[in-house]
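Dear U.,

For the methods section draft, I wanted the exact inputs and outputs in one place so we can describe them consistently. I've listed the two proteins in the order they'll appear in the manuscript figures. Please don't edit the token lines directly; just add comments below if something needs changing.

First protein:
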Amino acid sequence: MIANVIRSCFPVAAQAVADKSEDINKLNVFPVPDGDTGTNMSLTLGTVVREVAALPADSDMAAVAKAITHGSLMGARGNSGVITSQILRGMAEGLVGAHDPVTADDIAAAFRNSVKVAFKAVRKPVEGTILTVIRDISSRADRCAKEKMGVPEMLEALVVEAYESVARTPDLLPVLKENGVVDSGAYGFATFLEAFVNAAAGKAGELTDFDPTVATDDAKAGVSSKVQIELNDDWEGSEYRYCNEFLFKAEEGFDPDAALAHLATLGDCELVVGSFPDFKVHVHSNEPNRVLEYMLKYGQVYEVFIHNMDMEAHDRTAGIAADQAAAAKPAEPRKPLGFVAVAAGDGEAEILKSLGVDVVVSGGQTMNPSTADILDAAAVANAESVIVLPNNGNIRMAAEAAASASEDFKIVVVPTKTVPQAFAAMFAVDDQVSAEENAEAMVEAIAEVRDGEVTHAVRDSQAADGTPIHDGDIMGIAGGDIAIVGSDVEQVTLDLINKMQAEQEGDTLTILAGQDMDDERFEALCDRIEDVQPDLEVDAHRGGQPLYPVIFSIE
């Protein structure tokens, strides 16, 4: 029964991708870095595994297909994950009604449906990617079926075709050839397919022993010779900085085609996949707030992830450089104390590093790093004890989970809620005392910091004093409470500072400009602050954080 085969082989194939995820990640040199391909594919496949495992033991192919479709949609991460979800959907739906036992014609039909669904989801397909590979496999499947090939032989031929297609991707996409690599998503899918076929043939775990020889060409040997990771730091970025992805629960009247067309005016790489009422949305843009505001008109958004692709590109380069450096010299001994902090803006990250933070993890509002992200960053700090500054209340639990999971070194979490608190905490560091003693001093330091944030409302609400708030209003937030509501960023900032100074006078104001506030506006704002608060010393910096044009602290 095909449903039972899929249920037994899918987890094996998903695990193979998870095991190779870091190798796949390092291949991600497509001109628009979009998260880590291996990680995103692995997360997508992992969600499917859990959803299928939850089915009753006697579930038929229709139930399995529904679980694969829903699980891959809900778990899809990044462009590669979303496209993978549509490939899986097309394949699973194409197998509903297949013969028992499955035939070559059934498999060919399923691949044809997979190509149809996957290409329909992508407005501007790019050759030399996972889409090319699935199309090539489908064409080979049609030929195998026409030749009346047996299913086991057909599946092995499709794996060979997958690797041969992967090996051709650098000839179709110049950026791959320039970097000496194959397409990451394509390679990830070939890995998945080979592991699945091996599991179906009773050879689970034998990836390296599979022989993909065709005529005189050893396809996999060709792939191996191409997969050489090169350090490339000349990527200048795309027109758009942020990768926005989220799940969407649509209301009646939602038109996915109209939404897709509108998202194309806000950015590129736009995807709206799924079926009413559940959709997955993906788009690259410079204004995540506009993407969310538009979609909120037609339903509810949840599980929102916003990635800074500029930072991902630099992090990838730094990671490869670190790997190469580590391979070239003996491991350095661990230092006594290291520091990891979370930040959303480039400017914030630079300031934190100037204060002694070893590793900055990209994250903040709407893009919370995982426990694994924090644990990996702590390992890079290479210290016996690592102090982690989460800088957001929603990230604290992930940081504490990392502390509990760490076995090779100690992690101590200082519960900072904002980046300005982290600044104050780092000024309290004494490298001559223990991590615990430093943590105590840092907690005392952040207790002296009062924070302010200025952002815009995304729905109707009310302030702490009952003042009504309307979608699009500018809000001034102090200590987690909405204290000021207005229509102008600069005026709300001034009113919030004045209110906080009236409640408790401070001496120093540290203020960070977000990515949406240009230098001229920021300088004018600082001048106005100095005029109305002449006794307050203003320490101004560019933070580069998204969504919050101004954040500040008063001490």
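Second protein (the one for the lower panel):
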Amino acid sequence: MKRWMMNPAAKSALQAAERDGAGAGAAGAAGAARPAGDIDQICINTIRTLAMDAVQKANSGHPGTPMGLAPVAYHLWQDRLNYDPQDPGWPNRDRFVLSVGHASMLLYSLLFLTGVRETGENDVPLSTPAVPLEEIKRFRQIDSKTPGHPEYRWTSGVETTTGPLGQGLGNSVGMAIAERWLATTYNKPGAEIFNYNVYAMCGDGCMMEGVSAEAASLAGHLKLSNLCWIYDSNHVTIEGGTDLAYSDDVATRFRGYGWHVELVADANDTAALAKALAAFDKVDDRPTLIIVTSVIGYGSPKKAGKASAHGEPLGEEEVKAAKRSYGWPEDAQFLVPDGVLDHFSKGIGARGKEKREAWYKAFDEYKKQNPDEGAQLELMRKQGLPTGWEAELPVFPPDPKGLATRDSSGQVLNKLAVKIPWLLGGAADLAPSTKTLLKFEGAGSFQPQSYGSRNLHFGIREHAMGSVSNGIALSKLRPFASTFLIFSDYMKPPIRLASIMELPVAFVFTHDSIGVGEDGPTHQPIEQLASLRAIPGMVVLRPADANEVAQAWRTILTLHDQPSCLVLTRQALPTFDRKKYASAEGVARGAYVLADAAGGKPKVILMATGSEVSMCVDAYEKLTAEGIAARVVSMPSWELFERQDQAYKDSVLPPDVTARVAVEQAAEMGWDRYVGISRDARTIVMHTFGASAPLADLKKKFGFTPEAVYETAKQLVK
């Protein structure tokens, strides 16, 4: 083991530990002698053995990567990271993302050994540890703080939920974008409030996943010099050696993306790693990739360098053999030797506390000199909204021709973004079509020369756009990301993770139906609405006119712990006369009675979302003219409707009115919940992938006309 240059506190701890000699660790196995070696090596081997023991006890997990990467993680945390374990939510902390989420025990060991505290609401630190030793012993068990893959909000100190490989890399790009935006927007001469770095640890699997290529390409274009990826190149995947399917020249590939690349030939050579990280510090015009060659399962006599060290426990005898190779007591389990916790406390603990206290002192002065900006930053941290943020929310007049909901959304978004300075986002090269371009003075385009701008240009990279947006939301900004609804399929993993993490990301999807017309089945979304509604915690809103759009945006921005999908039309929809029909404020309750029978006693209920609501209104008017008692229910959000109490739901959909018609240009799945399965229930929905033709012809072909709705309702009433 080569010794790297250490900070004074860590060096002092090393000298004290070497004077202490052998002894039983207070947190470790009773009566076990302290293993041989200097304190740094003992700390590294503590990380390794905690990971091995936890996986073995759980009989489940991935021990090999923590064993190989322990020296890298130790050096990064102990000697470099500006991070205070006593306040893991400190706004200017360096971010550490473990994109190789299956190596979760590497992170849990660090959270325990560094003494990271649990946090409460608004990241306020509590007195309890985030990951006590008992939780490491409960690795992968029900309700433990140490699930199989790290989970944001569940375990304090975990910056993002990583599981699907490559997602953490996309998140890290979003975090780096957020730091650049915060620094450009809020730093003042002599008051550098934001200057943190983002470190992401990734592996061969992350590099193979396409999202990493998208994210790396975007980061290189944006010259995010605050971003460092550490690539664990151990040449092993589940099936065997990476040479089975992977022979990329990663260094050349990343140089092509515009990255600075450093090589470390041996993960145990921490002096070389320190040199590579020092190079990262000096590079100010591009992100850095450090390629580290490691041995998966390092120290295991029979499994080191093999696929068998990747995704399964080593086995009790092999654990003992690996411990012997480290000079570790082979029968000691979950051993934390004397001096280890103290060493971390005097390293990252002392450094982090000093940095954090200095930052809060500077921030207090900053708030005195810049009260408006200081108030914004504090409100942002609490996920709040500025006073009067909805004061200029547009109200659209009645209009038979109306607007496409993508157009009204663009108008609403621009009004809201002026009032909410940390609302920013963009599209996957489709802003002119999704109408998400912010056009007010100063909005600008986020580029290397203009990091304070509000329009993000993701290029044709939907997958990365989703994971980058999650990273931005993890930094307490309010991002939106847009594309066509059909392309939500390209970004389903980050959409799903946004729900798991309870992040208030607004996903804006346009071209929502067969209304796409001549582009045909490849671009006409059919099953996408059902798939988005199936995601637990997701709020899907498909508004029926411009005023429903305004109310949908109002609802979205009040969601602080949930993502949303706003689903919008390409074609114009009539704007309802709200003096004749009910107020669009009913959107907040998910579904509401838009038009009703005289006396409120319908014989038939017509229900729909989005563009199909106007068909129901036209059919309603014809039924009413014939004396047939009908009701129109606009149902922009099933999820919000399901949260209402039963009395409200019954008032909208009375149980005794069984004649019901549901209309939606999408798959039928889910509508049985509202129309029922009786002979009085009908759905007018899509059963194929659509066709290429003008919209008027498509409506006739698939039965989406007011006449079809009218005839269906009339038959049910008879």
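Candidate sentences for the figure legend, describing the second protein: Residues 1-32 have pLDDT under 50 and may be disordered. The CA atoms of residues 157 and 493 lie 23 Å apart.

Thanks,
Y.
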